Amino acid sequence: TIGMVVIDKMGHTAAGTSTNGLKFKIPGRVGDSPIPGAGAYADDLAGAAAATGDGDVLLRFLPSYQAVEYMRRGEDPATACQKVISRIHEYFPEFFGAVICANVTGSYGAACNKLPTFTQFSFMVYNSLRNQPTEEKVDCI
Amino acid sequence: SSPLPLVLNTWPFKNATNAAWQTIASGGSVVDAVENGCTVCEAEQCDGTVGFGGSPDELGETTLDAMIMDGTAMDVGAVGGLRRIKNAIGVARRVLEHTTHTLLVGESATKFAESMGFTNEDLSTRASKTLHSEWLAQNCQPNYWRKVTPDPSKYCGPYKPSGVLEQGIPAYKEVDIHGHD
Q1: pLDDT tens, residue by residue, B57-113
Q2: Among candidates B140, B137, B127, which has minimal Cα distance to B178?
Q3: pLDDT tens track for A67-125
Q4: CB–CB of A124 and B29 under 8 A?
Q5: Minimal C-alpha gap between A124 and chain B (Å)
Q6: Do A4 and B176 touch (CB under 8 A)?
Q7: Is CB count within 10 Å lower at the N or C end of chain A?
Q8: ipTM score of the complex?
Q9: In which region does residue B27 sit, left (phi positive, over 0), alpha (psi from -120 to 50) or beta (all else)?
Q10: In contact, A13 and A49? CB cutoff 8 Å
């Protein structure tokens, strides 16, 4: 799945996802990706976020909406992402998931739920301080 | 100085990041940028989890989910379980632009897409068909069934409700980080 967040110089935000979902799903199954607030969410007044992972679990927590609400209350993007992951971890300690967050000043962060086979999450960043897309990694919590 | 504009995306899908950035750099809107970035990933089938030819369901079909949200207008367009249309994020954009709805799903979403000029075509590929036949050969493991009979941890379906917790509690499923939403 790709989850994407874009913020322009005026602070206009957009977010989106595209996926073909889980392998071998039961026909008719839809995950978090197309659900606003779950797969992605954006609000010029606060910021934007997108989630990826096991959509059956992510869908139940509206992680992108939750992250934007944390940023609306002043959390920095990395903390907002971490709080969302911790929230889900309480109920599903072994869930597979990661979130990317950005506020309207252009600060960004990411977080993921640590599993034996998933200890780091890679995401891409491109902003006016760079001249090409850059891969960044975050250690899962 | 403010680092804006900013493009951020999950996983190391670099070409998608670049396409979104180029859209902004050439004067496109942030919604254009998200659409173009995700469209690149659909066309490139990023790590098999985006676009056609990946993640077949139990019947071997690939279906697509996508959404796009405009954070200025709080407007959203989304499709779920889209069948036989490759450019899911493009269809999601049409839902945003040409309807007051938010989410269209399934076969009817396909008919909407066709009315918007998208091509109806098979989303499976040799790779997705091979993936599916290998899964069938492994007694349909892993799967997402529980409290059904026959025992879903051993056999393929069709299944019926059994009211009994699994005959054997499914072992912890190894996370497939190439199988995600």
Answers
A1: 999 999 999 999 999 999 999 999 999 999 999 999 999 999 999 999 999 999 999
A2: B127
A3: 999 999 999 999 999 999 999 999 999 999 999 999 999 999 999 999 999 999 999 99
A4: no
A5: 5
A6: no
A7: C
A8: 0.97
A9: left
A10: no
d(CA B84, CA B118): 10
Residue A53 pairs with which residues in a beta bridge?
A97
Return the structure tokens found at B70. 């405009």
Would you say B95 and B104 are in contact if contact means Cβ atoms under 8 Å apart?
yes
Q: What angle do CA B116, A31, A74 make, to 5 degrees?
A: 100
Helix axes B14-25, B30-44, angle to 10 degrees: 150
The model's confidence at residue A11, banded by pLDDT at 50, 70 and 90, is: very high
* Angle between helix B30-44 and helix B88-98 axes, rounded to 10 deg: 150
Interface test with A, best of B50, B63, B67 (most A CBs within 10 A): B67
Among the residues of chain A, which ranges form H helices?
Answer: 55-58, 63-72, 77-91
Amino acid occupying residue A82: Q
End-to-end CA, chain B: 35
Residue B25 burial (CB < 10 Å; 0-12/13-18/19+)?
Answer: exposed
Residue A111 φ/ψ region, left for φ over 0, alpha for ψ in the -120 to 50 degree band, beta for the rest: beta
Task: Please provide residue B12's backbone torsions phi and psi, each rounded to the nearest 5 degrees.
Answer: -80, 55
B174 touches chain A (CB under 8 A): yes
> Quick one: how far is CA A2 from the chain centroid?
10
CB–CB of A32 and B181 under 8 A?
yes
Query: Catalytic residues of A, which ones?
Result: 1
* CB-CB under 8 Å, A25 with B181: no
CA–CA dist B68, B147 (Å, integer):
36
Tokens of B8: 């951020």
